[in-house]
Amino acid sequence: MRQVESLNLKNYQGKNYLEVQGYDFLPCTITESTPKRRVRVGLIQHQVTYPTDRPISEQLYDIHRKIEDYIKYAAANDVQVLCLQEAWNMPFAFCTREKYPWVEFAEDVNSGPTTKLLSTLARENKMVIVSPILERDTAHGDTLWNTAVVIDNYGQVLEPLWPIEARCAAIANSYYTCAINRVGTETFPNEFTSGDGKQGHRDFGHFYGSSYITAPDGTRTPGLSRHRDGLLIADLDLNACRQAKDIWGFRMTQRLDMYAKELQEAIKPDFKPQIVKKL
C-alpha cells in the first residue's frame, strides 16, 4: 500500500464544531500513455441537532442549514465531488421500526426540498453531490426507497441509485470507496428493541463515525472522529483504478462461463458438494 500525505486546507470558520482532515493519494505509477486524472472528493459525517420529538419541518430545516454551511466550506477548498451519509437529512429512525412520523421525511428526488437545496449548491459551486435520502416515489404507488440521489455540477439530478450492490461492485472492481457513517446518539420518543433479547430502549447507542476513503490497491486515509461532525477531503488519482486492474488481472483470468455452470448446479435440490477427503 502507498502512503497518503496531508493536504493544506483553509481553516473552518463556521459556528459548528467540525473536524477537518485532508489527504492526498499520491499519484500511482506514472505512465506515458495515460494523462493525469485527479479529482478532489469530500465526505461529510454529522449528527442530528434537534431532538427527534420536534416537528419534522424544524428538524429538516436545521440539518439543511448545517450541511449547507459544511458544503460551502468544502467548496472553498475546491472539492469537486461531495458525498453525504445515509439518510443524512433525518434521524436514523429505521431502527425503531416505526413508520410515522418518520416517513414524513420522505420526499421526491427531483422536486423535494433537500434536492432543491443541493441542486442550487451543486450549480453554484460546480460540484457533484451524492445525497442519500428517504425517497417518496409517487410514480410507483408512493413507494418508499432508501435512495442515493446523484446531482451533477450543473444542479441536475443524474440518477437515483437504490441497491447496495453498487457499493459492493465498487470494491470488487477496483474503484475508490468512501465509507461514511453518522455520529452522535439519537433518542426517540417511544421505546424499541434491537433483536438482542434486551429490554426496550429509546436510543440506538453511539454511531461510530470514523469515515474514511480507500483506494483500489487498499491504501486508505485515517478515519474521522468517532464522535464529532467531520469533513474528509482527499485528492484521488483515478488512474489507480486501471492500474489496479492491470496488476491484479481479475478480469483477464475470470471464467464467467464456468462460474455460471457451477452456480446452476449448486442451486439444484439434489446438489452435493464435491469433498476431497484424500490427497
TrEMBL record:
PROSITE patterns: CN_HYDROLASE (PS50263). GO terms for molecular function: beta-ureidopropionase activity. GO terms for biological process: beta-alanine biosynthetic process via 3-ureidopropionate. InterPro entries: Aliph_Amidase/BUP, C-N_Hydrolase. Residues 39-238 form the CN hydrolase domain. This is CN hydrolase domain-containing protein.
